[in-house]
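Morning!

This is the sequence you dropped in the shared folder:
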Amino acid sequence: MTDHSKNASRAIDRREFLAGASALAGAALLGLPTGAQAKLKLEKESLKLGFIKLTDCAPLIIAYEKHYFEDEGLFVTLEAQANWKVLLDRVIDGQLDGAHMLAGQPLGATLGIGTKADVVTAFSMDLNGNAVTVSNEVWAAMKPHLPMKDGKPVHPIKADVLKKVVDAMKKDGKPFKMGMVFPLSTHNYELRYWLASGGIHPGLYTASDINGNTGADALISVTPPPQMPATMEAGTINGYCVGEPWNQQAVFKGIGVPVITDEQIWPNNPEKVFGVSKPWSEKNPNTHIAVVKALIRACMWLDASMANRIEASKILAKSNYVGANEAVIANSMTGTFEFEKGDKRPMPNFNIFFKNDATYPFYSDAIWYLTQMRRWGQIDASKPDAWYLETAKKVYKPDVYKAAALALIADGKARATDFPLKTDGFRGVQGGFIDGLSYDGKKPNAYLKQFKIGNK
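The structure's back. Tokens below.
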């Protein structure tokens, strides 16, 4: 009997698996005959995965509802979490095997921003999906300054217009307050990016200011996503940046107006990831690959047709998932987005789950988040360009993703052309930002030097 046969019953080392997968181009994974379905020897079959009640938890929900987890031999329990901190803590201490996470959370945890722990991701859950909403009072003050066409505001709406409102409130001694979901959230960085692009200083994090309000024209604080509309309606905040369905909820309730989506701030920005602890990933390499396989299939399904999006909206509306009105969820999930009530515009890319290489864990995506952590002071000192890539590689694990993709190809569930398997981990120079700047993930310090507001 060969050594390979003797070791077949063991959990296969990731490096051995990847080497075999690469050499055989996904055709004979794990020693299976060519053409046979690639079944991984799982280290752990029963998993508990966490999520927050947002539209972009959809990959987890669909992988469960469509039995993609079961197809991989996984028995999964999904559990809604109270907030992002609780979710992260429960992944770190092992109460959860993995979770729907903010893209900045694995990076921040690894760096010790807030909680210190090694957390990794091999899967990006979606692109775009957030918006900035303001109260009716703020909107009424903004609207006279907006360029109009056919009786409707011209989009994208720049923060220059909001600055007039912020300045007027400051003159009257009133603070301007905005909510976001977590200090390491996409929402925090997108909101700060948009405000700064219009000359509104969103504040800096310092050793003595963990709230990030030093020098701020707009005070930004944390509010859990489902509580955003009620918090704004109560007057505690003047607006917020959050994922769906909580912007559309403000429209449906008539309490506020979304003014810009994150797609308009930075097209195809990475939003959530599937995160696990590094020790869990090292202990369960094949299980990790199997989870990613199921999630990839879910994302493919979500982007396959409008009928699937409509079905997904119905599923997500269930109380044990997002628990919002189906029509509210469908408002953004089906290729449109409603701004001021009645101003519904086509936005086919508002939620992207698979196309545009949405699921691949690009190093350049990680590096963008690191630049923003540095810009706003969460990283308290400048770093060389090499540090940014080294940090990205500690957290983002494309080897796991590629193994899952190759296994799906071997299973006949996907094609090689579905995945960017030859990428160097960088999307290339990206443009389309609201401030007209461009981003090259290979030159993070040059990118930071372009900004007028924030650390260099």
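Headline: The two ends are 61 Å apart (CA to CA).

More detail when I'm at my desk.
O.
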